[in-house]
């Protein structure tokens, strides 16, 4: 059975781009409906296991493409529920990048200075704090000590974590049971609901159609709450404005599927995809060397053996985030926790014999048994935006292979020499740090099994000044399709060399005044200028200077 409803704003997705839009537009007086394809789980629902059918497989979306695999959130709160809450700001040089197009990728109106007030708003809303060294985990401390031993610097990473509530259980990737991780379930989304926004989980948007009054009709399927391959209903909602925030792996697919009803899409829809230049290297620490070289020790005569204790990324080395370096040679190195059997199982065995398997077999089994002595280093480099989305699947963003989580998607990714150069530079630096004086053996990531890998997909519908290379204008409105806005990671022009969550959120905050104006032009009585979700107002000061006619006290 199909039913048609109406709303002022239809938001697709409830991650950073969707939740921020839902809060500001609902608080401003608009009728807001949010469709989220995943389930609505709370802290009591998150399970400390990685078994099939647990909260872990319900809230993740793992899409295997051709040369690239994408891991993202699939739940109310989106990526904020499964992220590690590392929230650095993008370096100043990022906004001047030229990338594959040979000219500035970002809109001329956006640089680090103009984005800082929006960074401030998000930092207040979550909030974001800088960790002290006494809050850094064993793994973070080991990485910092290794960097120091190799003549490099390291720093605690700013995070959206309440350290008073954190138990250092290291299960935050599967959702935080203790509400220590400041996901959107704790701020923007409850504030949006308090202002009347409606959130509907298990609703997967399929396509958009234009209505006679200049708005849009959004068609969706209702997904079975256990088997995501099964639809148990469908419907349509008419809206004056549509905000797409389904993620960089899904937003372009929705638009591509809608081309037969909406008309031609901008050339950049589904092109220029970036995996944020990401790489994983896992070091197998020699416990005796860690003690002798770094002076580390803890109980039971161990020096480390604590890979599983703590939380996600706590320490990063930013020495290569130097704007004077050539493009594609700048990167960040960050200590990270991935559980054995997940991503790190695809790391290559170091010193394998000629002709022997590098990512499975007896030698791999042997090193997996040492998993407590692992240290995973996450590299974020500058890639070349070479990802392209092919023909969209009949429904959703991927062809579902299993009941939950796993799908086969239309992304194609063939890394250019620029991207490969950046990966080699980062890999070599990790090896130089972690293998200095025999501290460890590094298992590099292999692309042989599932291709490159990203947990931070970006840029598949990016903002920009050039209509040929950007799908959106600098207000995040889809070119040629007024009233459709994109506020998720798809809008970010390219790799950031740092974790992108804060930049995605800041750009979403920046897009809100323009969306409010678009609603006003369509006759909706809506205002802009709500305080931070917890009622704080200091974050509005910088924004008020930018928009004195729009921000109210």
UniProtKB/TrEMBL annotation:
GO biological process: cholesterol metabolic process
Region named Disordered: 527-553
This protein's record includes keyword Flavoprotein: yes
Gene3D superfamilies: FAD/NAD(P)-binding domain (3.50.50.60)
Pathway field: Steroid metabolism; cholesterol degradation
Pfam families linked: DAO, GMC_oxred_C, GMC_oxred_N
UniProt superkingdom: Bacteria
EC number from the UniProt entry: 1.1.3.6, 5.3.3.1
UniProt key word Oxidoreductase: yes
FAD dependent oxidoreductase domain ranges (all copies): 8-40
Family to which this protein belongs: Belongs to the GMC oxidoreductase family.
Record protein name field: Cholesterol oxidase
